[in-house]
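Folding follows sequence. Below is one example:
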Amino acid sequence: MTEDQLKQQFQQIEDNFNVALISNRVEEIKKCITTDWVLIDSQGGIIPQESFFYVLERGLLSHSTMTKEILRVKVYGDIALVTGRGQNTGTWHEQSVEADEWITDVYKNENEKWLCVLTHLTPVKK
């Protein structure tokens, strides 16, 4: 598979992940991630999925928009590293938030499906 084909494949996977995230529904998000997925960000450090789901289910966090432009994909057997730039909007404790971030998602191919194992976010320096 060429580099462009890989980018297209993972752009679709990331787009599906974005749709799941803006649904704010845990069951939809679980379709895109492994059972041990974690989120890493500059404010919360390593955030286990249980903590992420907790704030979603209680309405403390919600996403209304989310986009990612895939810039780099590297596949190593059943592991893929996908790096891009993403923007999102939503609310955190009823306050409007927006983010512009560098995003690296680590994927694992499980049963012929790519599932996200880890998402690492780094704010874009303004």
Notes: The chain is about 30% helix and 55% strand. Residues 30 and 111 are 15 Å apart (CA to CA). The first strand starts at residue 33 and ends at 41. The chain has a mean pLDDT of 96.
